[in-house]
Structure formats: C-alpha cells, structure tokens
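$ run holo --ligand "iron/sulfur cluster" --emit tokens
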Amino acid sequence: MRGSLGSGVADAIIINGDYLEVVEVKLRRAYDIRPHLVQVAFYCLLAEEILRKRCRKVHLCYPEGCVSRPMSLSLRESVFGLVEAAEKGIEELRKAKPKKYCQYCKYKRLCPFAHGESKNN
Ligand code: SF4
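-- output --
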C-alpha cells in the first residue's frame, strides 16, 4: 500500500461492511508490543486512505495468540508523531553532506545520502 504517509505491506486486511481491520503477523512476541502496534496502526491509516473506509481495529498475531486493540485516537497520534519525526530526520539527512564515515556504513548501498545523491539535491 502506498499513501500520503508512506508505504507498507499489511499481512491481512479484513473488510467488514464499512469498516476495516488490519492484521500483522509476527514470528516472535516482543517484550513491549507498542512498536508493533504503531506499525499495524500505520498500515491501518494507509488502508483507510486507499480503501476509503474507517479502520477501527488492529490485530497483532504472535505464535502464542493474537492481541487486538481499537484504532484509538492515541494510536493515530502515535503514528502521526512518528511520521513527523521521521520526516524531520530525513530533512536533516538531506542537508547533510556525505561524511567520511559513510564509507564504513552498512547502509551505504541503500542510502541516497551516502554519495550526495538525494533526490532533492
Ligand atoms: S551512508 Fe547514509 S545512513 Fe550511512 S552514515 Fe552515511 S548518511 Fe548515514
């Protein structure tokens, strides 16, 4: 899915009349499930935008069982806060010039900033 917030791949989307529910499957349960909740909530917002239906529930499914949460206002705000923080970080990276240490970075093959090749340069 690609939307105005970004893109991602949901494991499953349940369309229930006018509403959506999004399912994310994880192979290992984390001690703190909050990052997984924000991830599935992000997919929920993308699905809302693309399918034009309200997302009302998210499900995280671990080998031990599923955890379901309503798509609350605070979950929505968490996603928007993270997207905003990521956009600020990307803006900062765009301003940065490739540094000497980029040559040692394991992400340099993927990083558009490693060689001063960002799209906005
Ligand atoms: S290659 Fe990209 S991610 Fe790695 S240090 Fe350089 S700017 Fe940062």
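-- notes --
Residues 2-104 form one domain.
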